[in-house]
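sry for the spam today, last one i promise. struct tokens for design, 92 residues
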């Protein structure tokens, strides 16, 4: 069956609209793929930063304990004895 597409005919307009819809569908599919890729990269970066933050917090906790241990063992602190002179009680 041969179809005649006359300019301005309803069939021609419908086929043009179908082409437009197909192009838009392809564009939206590409846009979706791009967004999914971006989301995946963002999730990976978020996880990397979360892990880095965890490691920094652990490192700071260790540093804090080491500093606390050093301060308690310092002679100016009286080896942990609160009755002895220290740098903040005015007896040093």
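last one done:
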């Amino acid at each position: 069956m041969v179809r005649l597409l006359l300019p301005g005919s309803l069939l021609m307009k419908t086929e043009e609209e179908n082409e437009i819809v197909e192009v838009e569908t392809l564009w939206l599919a590409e846009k979706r793929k791009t967004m999914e890729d971006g989301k995946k990269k963002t999730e990976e970066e978020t996880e990397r930063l979360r892990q880095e933050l965890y490691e920094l917090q652990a490192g700071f906790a260790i540093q804090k304990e080491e500093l606390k241990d050093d301060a308690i063992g310092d002679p100016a602190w009286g080896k942990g004895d609160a009755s002895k002179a220290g740098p903040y009680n005015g007896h040093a």
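Residues 10-72 form one domain. ok im logging off now
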